[in-house]
# Entry
Amino acid sequence: MDYGMIGKIEKAKRYAEDRKRFRFNKFEVTFRGDNNDHLVSFADGKFGCDCEFFITHQRCGHTMALEILFKEMIPTPEQV
Ligand SMILES: [Zn+2]
# Structure
């Protein structure tokens, strides 16, 4: 491995520990729920989920789990 690549790997490790460097713009995730899989999406600062609870509450256990998982990496409503 060349010296340049070794430096990049070191830098990548540091980057990966600094969550604030990352901001998701959009994504889709298959969420393995206890009973069914759910499709959770995120775009333009808003979550979507195909579960029933989300339809009535615009938030659900699935989207909230991703909020926790991607803490600091998804924009808060003020940042959109
Ligand atoms: Zn859901």
About this structure: Strands lie at 26-32, 37-43, 46-49. Residues 38, 49, 51, 53-54, 60, 62 surround zinc ion (CB under 6 Å). The radius of gyration is 16 Å. Residues 23-79 form one domain.
